From TrEMBL:
GO process annotations (BP): hydrogen peroxide catabolic process; response to oxidative stress
Recorded catalytic activity of this chain's protein: 2 H2O2 = O2 + 2 H2O
Protein name, per record: Catalase
CDD domains membership: GATase1_catalase (cd03132)
Binding site for heme: 46, 86, 135, 332, 336, 343
C-alpha cells in the first residue's frame, strides 16, 4: 500500500499522534491524503436519470443494412461490436428506489471501429415534449417540489400534473406513463426505443429515415401497482439486483434490434409528422425489420468507474448515420455534452476507459483538466510545414452531414403538423387489452388523487375526456369528481380515430413464459419432499429459478428427514419478490404459519397481485385466512405431476379475470 504519490505506507489504521492518547498531528500527510480523497469521492449525480444500472455486452448484426448505410456496425455482419448499456429511472435521485412509476432510460454505447455510436433511448417510443426548450420545465415539474424537497421519484404530486395539465402535447406520453410500461418487472423485460427519427446514408449518398427499437427475448412483463409500492420497501434495488444476478448467473439478457425504414415521400403520407417526438410510427404502418441482437454478458467491475462515469452523448454518431431535423434531438445534442462537463468535471471525460473509443482517435485538441494523453509533439495545429505527419481529415471515410435542403425564415414557431395532441393518445388507449386499460384508469386515479389543487384535477379530466369521453368519466368516478367535465379544446379538429395498433399492448404480444422468472416456494418443516423436489425440477426445467422461503433462513427438515436450505427468511422474502408462488406446508407447519402475519400477507398479497398460487392440501387453512378464493389460478399440489401443470399455467402470466374480484375497477 502506498500514498497516491507512491510512497510506501507503514500504518494505515492509526493516525500520527503525540503519544498514544495524545492529539493528532497536522503533520500526518498519510491521514490528510486519505481523508482529502474521501471528501471528494462524490461527483454531481445526473440531473435526470440519476439512478441506473449497467452492463457490458456485444451487438451482433444479423441482417446487413449495407443498402441503406455505410456504417460498419449496421452493414458488416462479421463484426462483434462491444457495447455498454445503462438502464435508469428518470425522476428519482441516485439513492431512490427502482419501482417508481417512471419512464426507464435505455442507453446503448456501441464501441464501433468508426468511433462510438450512442443510442440514448427510453423504454417508451415517444416523449412528453416537442421542443427541447421545454425540457427544464418538465424536469423541474416532476422532480421534488423545491420549497419542500419531496416527493422523491414520483410524478404523483401537484407540480407535475400542474405542468402536464398546461401542456397538451404531453397527453400521448402521459397515457404511456400511466400504463404498465412504467412499472416493468425487470430491465430484461422491457423494450427500448431511439425515439427520434434518424437518417441512414448509403454509399451513393441516398438517405432513408430510420427508427430504432430494442425488443427483449424474454418478452415484456410488468408488475402491478400495489406490488411496485411494496417491492420498493422490500427490495429498493429490485431491478439492479435482477440485472446483476441474471448476468452473474450466466442468464444473459438479449434484445433484438429492429428498424423501421421509410423515405421522405412515405413520411409525407403519415397521419402525423415523424419529426414530432410526441408521435410514434405504428408497426402496422412501417413494419419492423429485425437486423441484430444485443447480449449483455458482463457486469461492471466497478460501478463508479463504469455506470456512474459513463457519458452518453446523442451527438456521438458514426459515418452513415445522421440526425433528422427533430427539434428535440437537436436540443439533446447540446445538452448531453454540456452536462457531462459539469458532471465529470473535465473536457477530457472521453478519455475515461468507459467512454474512450476502442478504435484509435487523434486530433489537435490538447490539455485541459485531467489530460491523460499528453502528446509529445511540437505541432498542435494544422496545417503545418514543420510537421505534416500528424492526424489529418479523411474526406472519403470521414463523417459527412447529409446535404439536406434547409430553407425558411428564422422563427420561434411550432409547425402546424405538430398540432394534433390527442389522436395518438386515443390510439394508444384503444390498442390496449381490457386489463391494461383498467390499469391506465387506476394509475390516473392514483396519481390525480395525490394532487391537492382541484383545478389541476378538473383540467386533467378535460384532457382525458378529449382523448375519450368514457376514459374521462371513469377517472372522474374513481376520484369522486361529480362536477361536469369540460373537455379540452384541441388545437386541431377533429381528433382522428386512428386504427388501434395491437403491437402497443404488452399483454397482446404473448404470455411472459417462465424463463428468467422467480418461483417463490414457502416451505415448512415436515413438508413433502416429493412435492418440493418435483416443484424445483419443474421450475428449473421451465427456465425459471426456485427461491425457498422458510420461517427461519437456516432452512427446514422435510418429511423424509432431508434438510432444505432457505434463500429467504419469511419476513425478508415477501411474495412481491416472486412471479408466482407455492405453499408447501405440513399440517403442523401450517398451524405455525397461521400465527405469522408475514405468512398471511405473503399469501394474501400473491392472491391480490393476481398470481398463480399452488399449495398442498395441508396449507389450505392458511389460504383461507389469507382470503384466497378458488379460481383458475389456484392449483392443488397433490401428486408429483401437479408441479409441471402449475409451472405451465404460471408461464401464462397473471390471472387477470381475478382483478375485478379483488379491487374496484372503475
Ligand atoms: Fe435525456 N438527458 N434529455 N432524454 N436522457 C440526460 O444527460 C435531455 C430525452 C435519456 O444512462 C442528461 O448524461 C434533454 C429523450 C437517457 O447516462 C441530460 C432532453 C430521451 C438518459 C439530458 C432530453 C432521453 C438521459 C442527464 C429534451 C429518450 C440517461 C445526464 C430534448 C430518447 C443517460 C446525462 C445515461 C440523460 C437532457 C429528452 C433519454 C441533462 C435536454 C427524448 C436514457 O443531458
Amino acid at each position: 500500500m502506498t500514498t497516491n504519490h507512491g510512497m510506501p505506507i507503514s500504518d494505515d489504521h492509526n493516525s500520527l499522534k503525540s503519544g498514544a492518547r495524545g492529539p493528532v498531528l497536522l503533520e500526518d500527510f498519510v491521514l490528510r491524503e486519505k481523508i482529502f480523497h474521501f471528501d471528494h469521492e462524490r461527483i454531481p449525480e445526473r440531473v435526470v436519470h440519476a439512478r441506473g444500472a449497467a452492463a457490458h455486452g456485444v451487438f451482433e448484426l444479423t441482417d446487413s443494412l449495407a443498402d441503406f448505410t455505410t456504417a460498419q456496425v449496421l452493414s458488416d455482419t462479421s463484426l462483434q461490436t462491444p457495447v455498454f448499456v445503462r438502464f435508469s429511472t428518470v425522476a428519482g435521485n441516485r439513492g431512490s428506489f427502482d419501482l417508481a412509476r417512471d419512464v426507464r432510460g435505455f442507453s446503448v454505447k456501441m464501441y464501433t471501429p468508426e468511433g462510438n455510436w450512442d443510442l440514448v433511448g427510453n423504454n417508451i417510443p415517444l416523449f412528453f415534449i416537442q421542443d427541447a426548450i421545454k425540457f427544464p420545465d418538465l424536469a423541474h415539474a416532476v422532480k421534488e417540489e423545491p420549497d419542500r424537497g419531496f416527493p422523491q421519484a414520483q410524478s404523483a404530486h401537484d407540480t407535475f400534473w400542474d405542468w402536464i395539465a398546461c401542456t397538451p402535447e404531453a397527453m400521448h406520453m402521459v397515457m404511456w406513463q400511466m400504463s404498465d410500461r412504467t412499472i416493468p418487472r425487470s430491465y430484461r423485460m422491457m423494450q427500448g426505443f431511439g425515439v427520434h427519427s434518424f437518417r441512414l446514408v448509403n454509399a451513393e449518398g441516398v438517405s432513408t429515415f430510420v427508427k430504432f427499437h430494442w425488443t427483449p427475448l424474454l418478452n415484456m412483463q410488468s408488475v402491478v401497482w400495489d406490488e411496485a409500492i411494496k417491492i420498493n420497501g422490500a427490495d429498493p434495488d429490485y431491478h439492479r439486483r435482477d440485472l446483476y444476478t441474471s448476468i452473474a448467473d450466466g442468464e444473459h439478457p438479449v434484445w433484438e434490434l429492429g428498424v423501421q425504414l421509410f423515405t421522405e415521400e412515405e413520411a409525407a403520407e403519415f397521419d402525423f409528422d415523424h419529426l414530432d417526438s410526441t408521435k410514434l410510427i405504428p408497426e402496422e404502418v412501417v413494419p419492423l425489420r429485425v437486423v441484430g441482437r444485443l447480449t449483455l454478458n458482463r457486469n461492471p467491475a466497478n460501478v463508479f468507474a463504469e455506470t456512474e462515469q459513463v457519458a452518453f452523448c446523442t451527438q456521438n454518431l458514426v459515418p452513415g448515420i445522421d440526425f433528422s431535423d427533430d427539434p428535440l434531438l437537436h436540443g439533446r445534442n447540446f445538452s448531453y455534452l454540456d452536462t457531462q462537463l459539469k458532471r465529470l468535471g473535465s473536457p477530457n471525460f472521453h478519455q475515461l476507459p468507459i467512454n474512450a473509443p476502442r478504435c484509435p482517435f487523434a486530433n489537435m485538441q490538447r490539455d485541459g483538466h485531467m489530460q491523460m494523453h499528453p502528446q509529445a509533439t511540437r505541432v498542435a495545429y494544422t496545417p503545418s510545414l514543420i510537421d505534416p505527419s500528424g492526424p489529418r481529415e479523411d474526406p472519403v471515410a470521414g463523417f459527412r452531414t447529409f446535404p439536406a435542403v434547409v430553407q425558411g425564415l428564422k422563427t420561434r414557431e411550432r409547425s402546424a403538423t405538430f398540432s394534433d395532441h390527442y389522436s395518438q393518445a386515443r390510439q394508444f388507449f384503444f390498442s390496449q387489452t381490457e386489463p391494461e386499460q383498467d390499469h391506465i384508469v387506476a394509475a390516473l386515479i392514483f396519481e390525480l388523487s395525490k394532487v391537492e389543487l382541484p383545478l389541476i384535477r378538473s383540467t386533467m379530466l378535460g384532457h382525458l375526456a378529449t382523448i375519450d369521453a368514457a376514459l374521462g368519466q371513469r377517472v372522474a368516478e374513481g376520484l369522486g369528481h361529480t362536477a361536469p367535465i369540460v373537455p379540452a379544446t384541441p388545437a386541431v379538429e377533429p381528433r382522428t380515430d386512428l386504427k388501434p395498433s395491437p403491437k402497443l399492448s404488452i399483454l397482446a404480444n404473448g404470455p411472459p413464459g417462465m424463463v428468467g422468472r422467480l418461483v417463490g416456494m414457502l416451505v415448512t418443516d415436515g413438508a413433502s419432499s416429493v412435492i418440493v423436489g418435483a416443484l424445483i425440477e419443474a421450475t428449473v426445467a421451465a427456465g425459471a429459478s426456485p427461491k425457498i422461503v422458510c420461517p427461519r433462513v437456516g432452512g427446514v427438515t422435510l418429511d423424509d428427514g432431508s434438510h432444505l436450505c432457505g434463500d429467504f427468511q419469511l419476513a425478508g422474502g415477501p411474495s412481491v419478490l416472486f412471479d408466482t408462488v407455492a405453499v408447501i406446508a405440513s399440517e403442523a407447519g401450517t398451524t405455525a404459519l397461521l400465527g405469522e402475519a408475514a405468512a398471511v400477507s405473503w399469501v394474501h398479497d400473491a392472491f391480490h397481485h393476481l398470481k398463480v398460487i399452488a399449495s398442498t392440501d395441508e396449507a389450505e387453512p392458511l389460504l383461507a385466512v389469507a382470503g384466497v378464493a378458488a379460481d383458475a389460478g389456484i392449483v392443488a399440489l397433490a401428486g408429483a405431476e401437479d408441479p409441471v401443470a402449475y409451472v405451465t399455467l404460471a408461464g401464462q402470466g397473471r390471472i387477470w379475470a381475478r382483478e375485478p374480484t379483488v379491487r374496484t375497477v372503475y
